Amino acid sequence: MNHRSSFHPASPILDFCPPSLPARWYTDPLHHARELAAIQAQSWIYVGRVNDLPPLTLRKLEIAGQQLFLVKDDTGSIRCFHNSCRHRGSELCQQHEQRLKAKLITCPYHEWSYDLSGRLVRVPHVPETPGFDRQANGLFSAHVTLWNGFIFVCLAADPPDFATAPDLGVNALDNWPMADLVTGHRMTSLLQCNWKVFWENYNECLHCPGIHPGLCEMVPVYGKGVMSSAEMPGWSPEDAVASPLRDGARTWTVNGKACGAEFPNLTEAQRTAAYTFVTLMPTMYIVAHVDYVRAVTIRPVSPGETELTAEWLFAPETLAQPDFDLANVVDFAATVIREDGAASEMNQRGLRNARFEHGTLMPQEFDVFNFQQWVRRKLGEPLVTKGVKP
Ligand code: FES
Ligand SMILES: [Fe+2]
Q1: Secondary structure of residue 307 in the 3-state scheme
Q2: How much is the pLDDT for 387?
């Protein structure tokens, strides 16, 4: 192992080995409910692309165990409501996606109708009755915000400022034509692991040499078990920045070639970097390449189950090319995602053993440490300070 003194002071690697989270936090249903309430219910959660949501259609969602639906009106305005009628609580949207017959949301039970802003506008078969206030019986709404063509919902009464979300880099994708990109492919799987296991795996590359042979060939520095050269001994911030990809490759496709025209407004540095990661904990990460963008969503389903969705986003002209080779784009990252999913499931199986109370993070796992500290902070648990056991 290299001695810490061979690393530049600006290197992100840790100079101690912190304990990882308690193993119980990955399996215990009561702890899981606590996380949903303290983390997922308090954060902005990604729920779909603006241009994948048809107007005048309800789409069901679940966030932190709450049933909701989205609706886009005919002016393009998007709202989110709890999926409960104010009369006696019936579900309003019954299918995954439900086209509206009129500009009204009508309860299937006793046919109360709400307009698309959630106001109660119709109570059929019932005489006007003193004391009943229609205005006080609108749908319960959740906050919605749009960013780069992505829709986010927050259940909190007082949502956090989206632009200051940790690690976000709210302007990081400004040079990509994000709002115009269309979904060319979607892949969903139900992983048998806790949601934090997948995020921890995302936050380190110590597993890359053993788990991702193809990715390490494409990005040689990953084959050294680090995410970037800044984690290598002898690195200095003054070093010239070179492409991290193997010779001749421009992007993450099977043949390394761009799948269409490169986005025109990227800086030279963004082209050289070959991939720009944007992380929106706890809901998604985005990887922007010179020719396409990938978005991966992480949704907890139960303590030991996580729904993973990957979306490949393209300029419409790229998808319209007569010789467009979707498999050349999708297969590269789909393989990496499947490898990460299998590694996360393997991790989860081992976490169940009673003798394993918690693990120990290595210096290159600084971003796993940052993630775990963020989880501790959200839960109001003591943070790990250097050399002190939690
Ligand atoms: S529960 Fe919706 S109208 Fe009665
Ligand atoms: Fe990985």
Answers
A1: strand
A2: 60
Mutate which of 81, 88, 140 for ligand 1? The one with the most ligand atoms within 8 Å of its CB, which is 88
Q: Hey, whose CA ends up nearest to atom 3 of ligand 1?
A: 110
Output phi, psi for 320, to 5 deg: -80, -5
Q: Can you tell me the distance from the alpha carbon of 125 to that of 182, in angstroms, rounded to the nearest whole number? A: 45
Count of all residues that appear for the chain in the document:
390
Q: Do domains 8-27+181-379 and 43-163 have the same CATH topology?
A: no
Domain boundaries, the chain: 8-27+181-379, 43-163
**Cα dihedral sign for 267, 367, 189, 170?**
negative
pLDDT score at 187: 98
**What pLDDT, on a 0 to 100 scale, did the predictor assign at position 7?**
78
Q: Would you give the DSSP letter of residue 192?
A: S
Which numbered atom of ligand 1 lies nearest the CA of 92?
Answer: 2
Predicted pLDDT at 165: 65
Mean pLDDT of 201-228: 93
Residue 10 CA to ligand 1 center (angstroms) comes to 60
Domain 8-27+181-379, classified CATH 3.40.50.150, yes or no: no
Q: How far is CA 19 from CA 11, 133, 141, 253, 375, in A?
A: 21, 56, 40, 37, 14
Mean pLDDT of the 339-349 span? 98
Ligand 1 site residues (CB inside 6 A) read 85, 87-88, 90, 107, 109-112
Give the number of the atom of ligand 1 that is nearest the alpha carbon of residue 112. Answer: 3
DSSP class per residue in 27-67 = T-HHHHHHHHHHTGGGS-EEEEEGGGS-TTEEEEEEETTEE
Which H helix or E strand runs over 89? none
| pLDDT of amino acid 390 | 45
- CA distances (Å), origin 61, targets 136, 360, 381: 24, 36, 30
- What is the second-level CATH architecture of the domain 43-163? 3-layer Sandwich (2.102)
Calpha distance 363→135 (Å, rounded): 57
Angstrom distance (rounded) from CA 213 to CA 360: 25
